[in-house]
Amino acid sequence: MRWTMAGFYVAAGIAHLVVPDKLLAITPSWVPFAPQVILVTGLCELAGAVALVTRPFRRWAGVALAAYAICVWPANFKHAIEGIDLPYIANSWLYHGPRLAFQPVLVWWALFSAEIIDWP
Predict the structure, then answer these.
(1) In this structure, is residue 85 part of a structural domain?
(2) What pLDDT, on the 0 to 100 scale, is given for residue 115?
(3) CA angle 3, 8, 109 (to 5 degrees)
(4) Measuring CA to CA, how many Å separate 92 from each of 11, 73, 78, 102, 114?
(5) How many structural domains does the chain have?
């Protein structure tokens, strides 16, 4: 599970760096310095992915990635509510509904993968 999550965060981090304009479209307007935030979060996703699979940094990465999943939830809501088209992502509640509901699972997954929690 740890390596799968790290793979997802590597892909997301690369997307933040390669196509930041697409992610800017779903960034809430109240986020200050949004282009810079997207750049920094991309770098943080890459660092978090590496740290998650590196024993000395695993716990830090789990907490950071869990917090990150909570922090990006507003962008997912904006994406869903405003129906913003993004390449390779369906603009349908068949995508958005499960995606929004899955966000707490990402928080758990990060904490579980970092061995911070052991449930279940």
Answers:
(1) yes
(2) 94
(3) 65
(4) 22, 17, 13, 15, 32
(5) 1
